[in-house]
Amino acid sequence: MSGSSSLDDTVQVDWHALAPDAAAKLLQSNPSIGLTMGEVGDRMQRFGANQMTAQKRPSELIRFVLQFHQPLMYILLISTVITAGMGKWVDASVIFGVVFINAIVGYLQEAKAEKAIEALANMVVTEATVRRGGEKLRIVSVQLVPGDVVLLQSGDRVPADLRLLQQRSLQIEEAALTGESVPVAKQTDPLPSEAILADRTNLAFAGTMVSAGQGEGVVIATGDRTAMGRIAGLISLVEDLQTPFTRKIAQFSRRLLYVILGLAVLIFIAGILRGTPWPEMLIAAIALAVGAIPEGLPAVVTITLAIGVLRMARRHAIIRKLPAVETLGSTTVICSDKTGTLTQNQMTVQEIHAGGRLYHVTGSGYEMDGKIHFKHAPVIVGENVALIETLGAGLLCNDSRLVVDASGHTTVQGDPTEAALIVAAQKAGLSEQELSRSWPRIQTIPFESEYRYMATLHGNDAEPKMIYIKGAVEVLLEKCTQALNEAGEVAPMDKALVLGEAEEMATRGLRVLAFARRPMAPDHCCLEHEHVAAGLTLLGLQGKLDPPRPEVIKAVAKCRAAGINVKMITGDHVLTAKAIASQIGLGGGTAIIALTGRELEALDDEDLADAAENATVFARVAPEQKLRLIKALQGRGHVVAMTGDGVNDAPALKQADIGVAMGITGTDVTKGVADMILTDDNFASIEAAVEEGRGVFDNLSKFILWILPTNGGVALILLVAIIAGITLPMLPTQLLWLNLVTALLLGLTLVFEPKESDIMQRPPRDPKEPLLTRSLLMRTALVSLISLAGAFGLFAWEKGIEGTNLDEARTAVVNVIVMVQTFYLLNCRSRSHSMFFIGAFSNPWLVAGIASTWLVQIAFTYSPVLNRLFHTAPVRAEAWAYIVSIGIFTFAVVELEKWLYCRARRPLKNYPADASVAGRSD
Ligand code: ATP
């Protein structure tokens, strides 16, 4: 490329001091055409992709070493040194070996969790609208190069640093860069070269968000050369691995650690005072600490949440903030948009009302082979001027395109609402090209939910101009005083008649748009909201069918059974919304209560809270009302998930407990604040995510239900032995072995349990539920006592038998503990059902875990090498009969307890579908 060297020289240019043309010229870019594909290729080679280099993470070695930076690890390392100091080299190396393996396992688990979450970063691609080779294209932002012409509109994330060439009420929120939270009004004039970054109002910076208006700019810097790239590395997708629950667990583990350490110290001192030699007491104290502390707990929680994130991603829900995984499980209300989320966003014009007549349009989807009928007979469209004008307005006041791919399949570029209008006009034989030639577009007021209309100004140089406008019926009727009749004459408008007609269409579930026009003088060349405020002539109405997504009907029913209320919050007409709501079963067989934004406005906070709870459909709702509704629901104790796509939805998404953004149609602004992004924009994916969220929590609670009683059992055995001054039934190295083997091979497999079949028939989890519930404490006591009795019974029996040595008795005790833990693991597979109900082999990880545990236990018991390392000895056959019996006994007792407990609690299955506030705690 001839001028490429001068392009390189531009890196240090003060772009804000240059005029727009001069900037574009320096970048060898023609703003009205953009770069050619050849130029893009050259520049891509020269400047690289438009992406920031990831922040450097600590090296793998440091991450591994950090695994030792935990109180328990310190204790174990100190124990290693003391044991070595006492000359017990084998024990010292075994302790260190176990510590080392633990660190490796922790490191691998953490790496896996981080990788899983990082992988999601690549699933959300940001796109940009560019002008290249004279065409407007949507491309992945990574493909931008300096000199590209980028078009911005409200809701966009600025994809690279730009020198603005044009703008219209453009406001950009630059908080990410400058910390300034008030949006900056942009302009295009040159500025003094000394202007500081925050004052360079003619530039748009990568990573900032367009909060209003539109603009056009030429790319001046990409990737690391942007202002953001120079100060920060890649902004991570998921902020960190901490969640309220992991914090709760970490806090709990820390407290437990202190309690156990305190106990160990006390026992150590008491033993010495009693005259026991200190090395012996030290070993006993270490054994207690090692046996009682559930060291695997925090890591397991993180890994389980990460598994949940992956499962959700597979079901089209990408988690941006890890706490969302848990909050999803306690969601009590889901507030969903209608268009595209509950419906297919595949619009077809079915009815047109123009010139006092109602027409039907045949055909479905974006296929052109339909006809326009009046009373079942095809019509000649030209005979009704109002009809042809309505269709023409739909074609001209339109920013979307239909693209037919190689296989003949039609796809929409832009808004499906508008695409449907193109299809309807083409069914009537109108040609977009011809119309645009006679009425070229001069100016646009793009559609924004706030105004609910779009307007365009058309005309040729010296000829009279025409404004076409389309939008919500009530909004346009306010602006119209007259209407066009069949013959093309302007006559007074019968507002009530038109409104009635529109309502009938809406009752049939159609999304109705009104069309109007306003002639302007030949010298008129600009278009502002004031130009369409009044004096319009109504042309007609078009009613579009947007069928519900079939999978949503099932998902809504599942939510109801799960005690989750689904509410529709839409910008559409109340009758359309109600019709769709009843089609998807939102009312659950009862009449649907619907409220409009205007009705909500009149309510005070208390009444609004009642309304928010009782109504199912909220129509014509303004974004700021969404915020009020969420606050009202939260005030009543609800955990609210809320969807949104427009830039004005961002505050509501932030306020919601789970802000859900749309991956396809959502703006970058909403994606930026959301906790979760739906890659398919589908309500059913929210329901799927809730299901996964519940699954994650279920499995976590199963793991906790397993680990606390098993650790409790071991702690109790040691405590009793030490206090009673009995020989320790297990040595510290044996306890380390026990902890390592069982937590890893047994406990961890619970996090892979498949979701229980009735998971969506229970009430939502109460997020305030304490970690230690009454039932968990009871279970801990029960299992601990069985372990205690089993272990001491066996220990005493073994010791009493002639010829049995202490090593053999201890080996038998370790085996009885592992057996109790194995059978108890089967109990923990479900909190309410027996293992046989959920399928004995439905968790292959668990089956493999049990098999491996017993393979290594046999090695532990019979292999001479492990015998030497762990002071174990082969166990007699009779002892095995005892060991297995204790296991079976545990299983039976816990199953009985589960049954009694569930019976007292009553089955959860018939939980009332409209249960409102969060579920109960144990
Ligand atoms: P939801 O909030 O459930 O997605 P929605 O898509 O209908 O509903 P908005 O996009 O805010 O909500 O639209 C509100 C109203 O604005 C629509 O009912 C329609 O009357 C009008 N409207 C929608 N799209 C356009 C458009 N492209 N041009 C003109 N008017 C539109």
Automatic annotation (TrEMBL):
Segments forming domain Cation-transporting P-type ATPase N-terminal: 14-88
NCBIfam families with a match to the protein in the record: ATPase_P-type
Protein name (Swiss-Prot/TrEMBL): Carbonate dehydratase
One of the protein's GO biological processes: proton transmembrane transport
This protein's UniProt keywords: ATP-binding, Magnesium, Membrane, Nucleotide-binding, Phosphoprotein, Translocase, Transmembrane, Transmembrane helix
Main location: membrane
Locations listed in the record: Endomembrane system
Highest taxon of the lineage: Bacteria
Membrane topology: Multi-pass membrane protein
Family label: Belongs to the cation transport ATPase (P-type) (TC 3.A.3) family. Type IIA subfamily.
SUPFAM superfamilies: Calcium ATPase, transduction domain A, Calcium ATPase, transmembrane domain M, HAD-like, Metal cation-transporting ATPase, ATP-binding domain N
Species whose genome carries this gene: Massilia eurypsychrophila
